[in-house]
Amino acid sequence: MSDTNGGGRKSSTDEVRLELVDLRERLAATSDAGRPDAVIDPAETRSWIPRGPRSVPRPVREGRRRFIDTW
Length: 71
Hints:
mainly alpha; 0% strand
């Protein structure tokens, strides 16, 4: 191999490495994972729990209910 191919390969590798470093830094700057601010407040989410079952239509039962022995 000649020096120009080796140098070209190194420069393209350096460009990719710099792009990845830049991407990592941007992701780290916007990420809230692991920070106390990312914790869900239970007081804000209490209303979600009863809304969940209400959002699904009740099943239509046809005929007689089946007997289920609990023992």
